[in-house]
């Protein structure tokens, strides 16, 4: 029986666990980044900052800082992909899944799909950053040289 290098076994429990873990990472760190932003501008914390598309905007300081929090969160989530997913070819899948569930959460929270162009631009930029950086980190790890222990060398 031949062994396959990095053979992939279909494990739905693992995949669902990883999706839940990435959602937890996404919202936990987004909350921390938003708390840091709120500390800078002395504003009240609310779920509107995470789920309301009207908060993200280029015209206000709060909107620009919220955008910064979303961008920083995508970098943090890329580290989550590196630590927990560990497969470069799955980074885009998990990134899109996390943001798809976030869009559904925004849809439920606002009772309609987000219509602000700034919300879509920020989320597309976050998807791109999270996927590319996560894939870069995972591929760097995957392509690391595999050490091979060899016995004593002899001159022939």
TrEMBL record:
Organism whose genome encodes this protein: Pygocentrus nattereri (Red-bellied piranha)
Pfam families: SYS1
Task performed by this protein: Involved in protein trafficking. May serve as a receptor for ARFRP1.
UniProt keyword terms in alphabetical order: Golgi apparatus, Membrane, Protein transport, Transmembrane, Transmembrane helix, Transport
GO biological process: Golgi to endosome transport; Golgi to plasma membrane protein transport; protein localization to Golgi apparatus
Transmembrane segments: 12-35, 65-85, 92-110, 116-138
Primary location: Golgi
InterPro entries xref list: Integral_membrane_SYS1, Integral_membrane_SYS1-rel
Keyword tRNA-binding tagged: no
GO cellular component assignments: cytosol; Golgi membrane; trans-Golgi network
Protein name, UniProt field: Protein SYS1 homolog
């Amino acid at each position: 029986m031949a062994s396959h290098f990095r053979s992939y076994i279909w494990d739905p429990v693992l995949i669902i666990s990883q999706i839940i873990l990435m959602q937890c990472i996404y919202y936990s760190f987004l909350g921390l980044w938003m708390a840091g932003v709120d500390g800078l501008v002395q504003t009240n914390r609310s779920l509107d900052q995470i789920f309301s598309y009207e908060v993200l905007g280029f015209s206000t300081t709060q909107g620009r800082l919220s955008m910064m929090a979303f961008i920083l969160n995508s970098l943090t989530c890329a580290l989550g992909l590196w630590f927990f997913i560990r497969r470069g070819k799955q980074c885009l899948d998990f990134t899109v899944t996390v943001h798809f569930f976030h869009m559904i959460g925004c849809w439920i929270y606002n009772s309609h799909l987000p219509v602000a162009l700034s919300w879509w631009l920020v989320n597309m930029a976050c998807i791109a950053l999270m996927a590319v950086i996560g894939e870069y980190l995972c591929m760097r790890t995957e392509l690391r040289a595999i050490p091979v222990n060899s016995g004593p060398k002899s001159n022939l």
